[in-house]
Amino acid sequence: MRRKASLILLALAVFFAALSPLLRWYAFPRLAKIPANQYQDMVLEAKDATLLDYGTMKARKVPKVTIVQTLKGNVEASEKIEETAGKDVVVWDGLSYVVGPDGKMVSRIPERYIFDAHTQDPVHATGETVDGDPVKREGIEFKWPFLTEKRDYEYFDAQTRTSAPIHYKGTQDFRGVEVYYFEQTIPWTKVKFPKAMPVKGITPESVARTGTTRWYTTVRKFWVEPLTGAPVYGEEIHKEELRGGTLLGDRDKVTAFAGHVKMREDYIDHTVDLVKSNRTLVLLMTSYLPWGFLALGLLLLTLSLYLEARGRRPGDPSPAQDTEPEPVTA
Q1: What is the pLDDT of residue 300?
Q2: 278 exposed, middle or buried (CB, 10 Å; 0-12, 13-18, 19+)?
Q3: Nearest to residue 259, comparing CAs of 42, 66, 102?
Q4: In sequence order, which residues have a C-beta less than 8 Å from that of residue 98 and are 6 or more positions away?
Q5: What are the pLDDT digits (tens) for 274-317?
Q6: For labelling alongside 229, which of 10, 217, 277, 286 has CA 20 to 30 A away?
Q7: Is the pLDDT of residue 259 over 90?
């Protein structure tokens, strides 16, 4: 009976020991993915900002500029792309909507971001756009990969339609969560005017005819929770200028927007709570269960060997039997 029990325990020990690396290195990369129907929004603010008044073409100080960013999963589009891509694909229809202190629109830039649901690598397909212009992204945008590493990544900048390195700057504590801090600097670059302009009758084409150009620079900062790859907080030191042309009169340039953009406090709390919850799920798959199964396998192996050893011990000597004396022959 002991031998049978030890064999059962040995089989279970092998099963759990084998399950440990399979869960971490095989199951997790396939199970961890961004859902195709995910929706999220975020509100950022730039207080005491500088904003261009298109009526007078003069920059003025304003108490606040608000940026509303939304990302909506397009399930129908993702399923269509998956048919030819041969992988799980997420399509995010994003919108960056900027409003001034009077509630009027400053800019409105839609974009479609297509990426691998597991790795967050870009997937190039028809419809990949920024403000209606086709683009071909390289690197990441909005989210880092699961199990983010302490290294630089290529990060896509929607204003310039190009990718540039975003640098790992160190590990920090952000409201009780260990995060990796990343920073990217985009130098002054000539960029397109948004197709939706803040003043009726003014279009990118009409501005282009005046010879005036739009320039942009930013310092982009992210605090990223490494297990989930989700930013828990973000900031931008953002500047835009209009340069040259008859639109500015005798001026060489004028500030169109300048401000330190930060995530609004209530969205910080919500994001941190959400990331903490998702972090627990990732830890379950990458640490708690694999190490737990390995420990259980070792415990079962120990019990199996113990029962096997006890089953092989020599038993007590059997009692001596009385025998009849044999006859003596002459």
Answers
A1: 87
A2: middle
A3: 66
A4: 65, 66, 67, 68, 105, 106, 107, 108
A5: 999 999 999 999 999 999 999 998 998 888 888 877 776 665 45
A6: 217
A7: yes
